[in-house]
Amino acid sequence: MKSVWLMLALGVTLTGMNTTNAQDNKPATPPADTQASDDPFLWLEDIHSTRAMDWVKKENAVTTKQFVGNAEFTKTRDGILEVLDSDARIPDVRRMGDHLYNFWRDKAHPRGIWRRTTLAEYRKANPQWEVLLDVDALNKAEDKRWVFKDVQCLKPKYDRCLISLSPDGGDAVTVREFDIPGKSFVKGGFDLPVAKTEASWIDEDTLYVGTDFGPDTMTESSYPRIAKEWKRGTPLTAAATIYAGKPTDLAVSASHDRTPGFERDFVSVAKDFFHSELYQRIGDKLTRVDVPTDATADAHREWLLVQTRSPWTIDGTTYPSGALLATTFDAFMAGKRVFTVLFKPDAHTSLATYAWTQHHLILDVLDDVKSRLEVLTPPENVTTTGDWKREAMPNAPAMSTINVVDTDPDHSDEYWLGVTGFLAPSSLQRGVLGSIPAETIKHDPAFFDASKFEVSQHFVSSKDGTRVPYFEIAPKGIKLDGSNRALLYGYGGFEVSLQPHYSGSIGRAWLNRGGVYVVANIRGGGEYGPAWHQAALKANRPRAYEDFAAVAEDLVKRGVTSAKHLGAEGGSNGGLLMGNMLTVYPQLFGAIACEVPLLDMKRYTHLSAGASWMAEYGNPDTSDWNFIKTFSPYQNVEKDAHYPPVLFYTTTSDDRVGPVQARKMAAKMQAMGHANVWFYENLEGGHGAGADNKQAALMHALAYDFLWDQLK
Predict the structure, then answer these.
(1) pLDDT band of 394, cuts 50, 70, 90
(2) Which of 65, 173, 316, 439 is most solvent-facing, going by the fewest CB within 10 Å?
(3) From the candidates 572, 612, 632, 653, which is the catalytic residue?
(4) What is the count of structural domains for the chain?
């Protein structure tokens, strides 16, 4: 049972694959061993200062003049925007009770509408939707620029909801109570000011809340340190503290499980991204769910599932890293440690996700980064924990991804599947285990002619001999003469897997031009489970960069492209990857797009939410700096080195990584006299780089046009 804060990994940026808390906008304070004189660009860390914003405006103007003001850019941007705004896209839905809910953006609704319909209506080619909230109308009425972020509705009626709105697309949000029958915010209802907040329902009149309660109530990672219980009609200051964590914790949260007959309360204490403690709350007593801190514990009805991240020896039995174990919750809390192994990884497989229905458990297994689903049925007699029935679900098409996007575990065995592949437009399937086979309900249109291309998977040996996979999407009959413009995308961190997916934007902006698109499944990701991720942690971080470089070299060796025609792209943690390709492997690339990146690894823990990632990278204010400095691009860029053209883009409102690292890197390289260093900063959009489809299309097009132009 992970806290939502553990899900706020750096994330894959919109371009490649598919608001602000006051404390995050303050100038960062240099650590004791770093004085302003050591970093002449420290002033760019004062995010909204006049001097910093004047620099941003100047750089934006230069980049816009070079890349935006031409017919080719307009064609690219408009083609991407047509994809993002298309009415033919699948309206992704989430079941709540008798209705299917969807949030939708298009040309007529740039900030979006939240709406619902019935299953019978959804099956139609043109469903009738009941609009519950029009964000554009709300913005007009309130003279704001709200960005819809999330909604949580109270089971089982789903009449009251908590809607999260960001003022600029960042992670900090206001949370307001919304009445669905009245289609309006509740006057005098629950209302929380903008902060990095987690709020969830206990009952009709009570919430669990973690937010900025005032001084010293947020962690050093900028997330809630204290979880409280808040009663309707009382001021937030009167909310009762349930748990107070340490400033060094990542985040603290509390939740209530409303499953009928299995109501439980939990407190989650995230120590860092990969270690947490889970407690069951009964009255004022907290009892630890005693699994390893690096394991994930998930209670569902009578069952407790434990997913290991490292080998776990208990009662004489050792369970491997990446395994999924099952036992009964009550027996475990009573001290029994008898588990059934539901999944055990091997050299080719890992467990991507799992999802409960009312009577079954669906496993999403990756087999060399391709999806395979299994259905497990627990025994009716919970005392026979080992008697789980197992059967395969139909496989997805080759080189594809299939995952469970929604279930209704309280009421039925209904499941919804998302199926996608690099050349297969995404489809949405629905079935009911045991009665209705999966059938396609909706599918995306084809945004480009996939018949001209083919997908292949390749493997290359990295520097240390590790076998690294990558996917290649290329024109059929491609000439292997090194002349093709190719774009290599990667991430390699936080146990995030890059799986096959359909992207109309990539198809139109890159493939249709004759380009080759490549996705590298490097270490640091989750493609082969926790061990694949842990192989590139902290001092081993360069393994991820060696993997990416090995893929680049293999593309050249195979004749797919050559260094001058090979571009690289990545965002967030992938932006750090790009920074290292720039400074360590510049000879391998003709151009690099570095998006919402980490780059200054000496200062990253003092910027925005950076302190939350020390389990991934290490703490630069300790002896860890001895290895961190080897992969800190900001410190490693050199005046006399030769670098390929590079575009840095970011957003002012990014309160996760923040805009200052991209700013400083661009400014430093320009001051050193390096040519072809470009910078662009969008004001809105948070870490995703776009607050609406138009902004997202501009950022996508800027990256693709920059790379295409530089690689000619």
Answers:
(1) confident
(2) 316
(3) 572
(4) 2
